[in-house]
Amino acid sequence: MNTVPPTGSYVVDIARDKVGQVMSCDRSRLRLRPVRGGLAWGSELSNIRQATTDEVLSAKVKAANAESGREEVSVLTVIRFADWAITPETASEAPAIVHELECTTCGAISGADEDFETARDWAFRHVRRTPSHTGYREIIHRFWRATLVR
Ligand SMILES: [Zn+2]
């Protein structure tokens, strides 16, 4: 990169293959920080390029997932339409995944709970009461968030 990127903008540190936010620039020496905060690192202006919107979004989703300990199975999925992107919900108050079990014989439902064990315990009680109801279907709810991408 030949020009100094503005403070707060996102760049890719080519040497580290990592997206960072520009905190400061002293001559050709940059201070970068991870997209969702954390330990800053230094890089040379010659080692960076401007990050694309997708790269920034991916890095944010990845960091959010790492924080919540969530699996990255479908989390890197970014559904885009025009200026909107839909990614797994990362708000701290939102449950990661909610489980329910439904009896395939009578359609009774355990009710939603963040712990699969709660739904499983319901199924144990249900089959004890009605021993012929041995089939269950798990319903998993995963929450998503649409965000406007600049
Ligand atoms: Zn049943």
Automatic annotation (TrEMBL):
Residues 77-147 form the DUF7848 domain. This is DUF7848 domain-containing protein. It comes from Streptomyces thioluteus.
